[in-house]
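Structure first, sequence second, as always.
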């Protein structure tokens, strides 16, 4: 089992790139079925979603558009509770079928604030596809429609997820080593 060190914290390999790829294919297949004859607008939430967006969208065979939004709510290994503003929405979303793409949904505070920012702008539908979902941490009522992988509450890095800026480029997902 491979172990890595980021900012003097140890992380061990937890989810392989093959597992990630198969889970993303499942989500892509569902979206390809559910949005047949529609033209969804995918909204990737930066920075964490960049690899998920790239790998998912190459498996989507719909006519579609892709844009990116930025929000930041996290520092270190615990959630700060404060959620900042959504920036970068230049498209007219009225009448559009939006699919928000997230790296991870934890408490759901971030996704809730994204919903609030996007609702009232006339979108035809708004759904979420997340690479990782923490069911034991999620506090919101809104159902997350597409969840590639469910994980525990431990802190993860890799495949877009960072620990204070490091680790986003790792192709596997690593879990913090508390031993
Ligand atoms: P939420 O608002 O749902 O509690 O948290 C969402 C955000 O917290 C994610 O977009 C991500 O930036 C960060 N986050 C939550 N859990 C983890 C984790 O295990 N690892 C990393 N690197 N970030 C996380
Ligand atoms: Mg994020």
């Amino acid at each position: 089992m491979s172990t890595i060190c980021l900012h003097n914290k140890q992380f061990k390999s937890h989810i392989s790139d093959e597992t990630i790829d198969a889970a993303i294919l499942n989500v892509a297949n569902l979206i390809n079925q559910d949005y047949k004859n529609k033209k969804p607008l995918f909204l990737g939430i930066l920075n964490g979603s960049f690899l998920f967006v790239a790998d998912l969208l190459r498996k989507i065979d719909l006519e579609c558009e892709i844009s990116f939004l930025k929000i930041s709510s996290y520092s270190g290994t615990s959630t700060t509770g404060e959620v900042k503003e959504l920036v970068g929405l230049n498209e007219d979303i009225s009448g559009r079928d939006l699919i928000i793409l997230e790296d991870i949904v934890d408490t759901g505070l971030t996704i809730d604030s994204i919903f609030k920012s996007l609702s009232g702008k006339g979108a035809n539908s708004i759904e979420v596809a997340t690479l990782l979902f923490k069911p034991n941490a999620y506090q919101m009522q809104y159902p997350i429609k597409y969840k590639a992988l469910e994980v525990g509450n431990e802190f993860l890095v890799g495949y877009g997820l960072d620990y204070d800026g490091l680790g986003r480029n790792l192709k596997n997902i690593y879990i913090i080593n508390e031993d």
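Margin note: The chain is about 20% helix and 30% strand.
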